[in-house]
Every structure is written in C-alpha cells, then in structure tokens.
Predict the structure.
Amino acid sequence: MGRDEEKVFPSCKSPNHTLASAIQLLQVVYEKLKSSGPLGRDVLSTAMGHTSSTSGAVGIKIGSLTHYGLLERVSNKVYKISSIGITILMPRAIEEKKAAVAEAARSPSLYQKLIEQFAGQGLPSMLPNILAREYRVSAQSAESVADTFRATMEFAGLLQHGVLYKQLPDASTVEEKGLGVPSDLPVSVSRSKEGDPAPKTVRGIAQGEQYTIPLSRERVAVFHLPLPLTKADLTRIKGWFDLMGEVLIESLDEKTKSAPPEVQDKDDNS
C-alpha cells in the first residue's frame, strides 16, 4: 500500500480508563449497591461518589464500563452489570476470571482493530501517531489512548514480554515467541557461554529504580519501577495488585498443595 493509499479506519471511541481502573470502579459500585441491576444512572452516580448524575465525570466512567462490556444498557439511563462483570467479581475458578478479564479487554471496538492489526508482534513505539493518522483519534488524546490500550493489554495478559496476542497465550507459546519488542526500536542481544540468546533489552526502556522486598526463608522479591513515574502509573500498579491478589494467592495455594511435604512445612512455618 503506497503512502497516498494508506489505510484509514472509521473514527472509534475508546475507554478513558484502563481495564484495571474500570474493574476497581465496578467493585466499588457492586459493594455499595449489593445488586447487579437494573441500576439507574442516578444510583450509579451516587455509588461512584458523585452528587449529580448529569456530570461529565459520571458519563466518562459509565462509558468506560460499557466499552469493556462490564455494564450493559437495559434502557435509557438504566444499566446492569453484565455476565462478564459478574464473572470477574465472583469467579468460580482462576481460569474463568482470567478469561473474563481478557474478554473485557478485547471488547472496545478500537482495541479489537488494534489487536487484529498487531497480534503476534510488538506494539510500535509510534502507536500514538498511528492512532491519530489511521484511526482518527485526536492528536491531543492519542498518547493517552495508546497508554490506556497498552496498560489494559498488559493487565489482561494479552501483551506479554512486548508481544500482543489475540487470545491468552500458554507458557509454551510465550516461550516460542521469545521476548517481544516494538519492531521499530533498536535491540541489542547478548549471548551466553552456551551460545543461546539472553533476554533482549530495549534501549531507553529499562531505566528505573529497583526495590528489594524481604520475604520468608531469606528470599527477596525484586520490584522494578521505570522512570519517570507518574501518579497515574502508581495507581495502575496498585490496581493490578489489588485485583490480581486473590488470583495469585489461589494459584500459589494450588502450587503449594502439589509441592513436596517438606516445602509445604517450611511455608507454613514461615
């Protein structure tokens, strides 16, 4: 396709919130109302902490929830929590929750098109420009839209090691793909003594600060924060741990059950 024939898609709206933030918002609404609906816009706005159901902030929040398929419109200004939303809030198993989160991440129409375009490869560093030129996203919001898309795909497990997937990949798929990076960034690859490629590093991305968290049995967890870091970035990180905490705990419980007895005893006595 020549430059004069570049593809331009119809303008697509997209959520203003990351999926992690939208799910947090849904949890707040459900915990306050103890109901999946039908829920009027005025009831929703109160549960979200707003005094007016006509405020722009309420519309943006409801819009994000509907983009991700977490809320469904029943009638004019009346909504209900969708089956996807219920599954995320009250999963019967870890895999069910993971699948529902991935489905929600794929729900926005813009995200569907981006996944179709970039599946199996790294997201380009110039994604904001692509959004503005090919998807008619305003230049002023293109960077924010790109950041929200990237954060949502990572949160849902559809963007792993820089590679974007249509479906949740299993461990073998990720291993075969290797560590993906945007195709238009320079990459340096070092090799081990055996000649196997070491993990790829992307220039300009790995800068940041590393924190060590002491754990039991003289182990440590290492947490890397890229710099510069914004308050919004910290909110996304906190949202991921808040939501995925129960999933991780349940997953670890299953691994502990299958571990040798001596390992289980050590964990129990830690």
In short: The chain has eleven helices and nine strands. Confidence is low (pLDDT under 50) at residues 1-6, 178-206.
